[in-house]
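Budget justification aside, the reviewers requested a transparent look at the raw inputs and outputs of the sequence design task funded under Objective 1. We therefore reproduce one unedited record. The lines immediately below are the structure tokens for a 181-residue chain.
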């Protein structure tokens, strides 16, 4: 059985990779499908996102990466895929995901949405969180593959070096004066 894994992947995170790797153990073939969405202003173009995903998956043989536009169920039919694979993180994902799955069911009875629960260590992780942290100079090395982190830094900003201790505690003399009193 083949599955498509649709999403924005702007950019791919370790949470997405976890779902892909686990999906590839369940299905014969998984097609990671980057949605072309003209309503969003992404950090990476669709082509760049595809390249970042491909470079993240050299160790997985039964995966391919492409893009699509329009209805997900139409793309699933084109790809001869019976399954739409999605990841479920916190409760807030559930409402939207259920709505999408039920809508897709009304459009294509033969296609099933399969949810994999996010792994504990990635259940907080989203592409938006990664972009937000990088934008404010934080490190994202523990959230995305190394080559993805480098690309993000070249676009947003590099992580800031830690602040020198003196700026955290700028008035040590006043403190010691108080102690004497
Ligand atoms: P969206 O499709 O809402 O733009 P993404 O493209 O980021 O979201 O994600 C595609 C799919 O991967 C969605 O099903 C989403 O719930 C899932 N996903 C995203 N991040 C994680 C994560 N950290 N762990 C598990 N699943 C995730």
């Amino acid at each position: 059985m083949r599955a498509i894994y649709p999403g924005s992947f702007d950019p791919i995170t370790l949470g997405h990779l976890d779902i892909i790797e686990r999906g590839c153990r369940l299905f014969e073939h998984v097609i990671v499908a980057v949605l072309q969405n003209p309503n969003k202003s992404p950090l990476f173009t669709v082509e760049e996102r595809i390249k970042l995903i491909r470079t993240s998956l050299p160790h997985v043989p039964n995966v391919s990466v492409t893009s699509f536009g329009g209805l997900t169920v139409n793309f699933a039919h084109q790809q001869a895929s019976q399954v739409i694979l999605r990841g479920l993180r916190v409760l807030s994902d559930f409402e939207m995901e259920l709505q999408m799955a039920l809508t897709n069911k009304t459009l294509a009875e033969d296609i099933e949405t399969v949810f994999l629960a996010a792994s504990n260590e990635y259940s907080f992780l989203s592409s938006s969180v990664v972009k937000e942290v990088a934008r404010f100079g934080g490190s994202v090395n523990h959230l995305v593959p190394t080559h993805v982190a480098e690309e993000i830094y070249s676009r947003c900003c590099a992580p800031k070096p830690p602040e020198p201790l003196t700026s955290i505690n700028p008035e040590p003399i006043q403190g010691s004066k108080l102690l004497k009193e």
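The chain has eight helices and five strands. Residues 10 and 45 are 8 Å apart (CA to CA). Computational costs for records of this kind are itemized in the attached budget.
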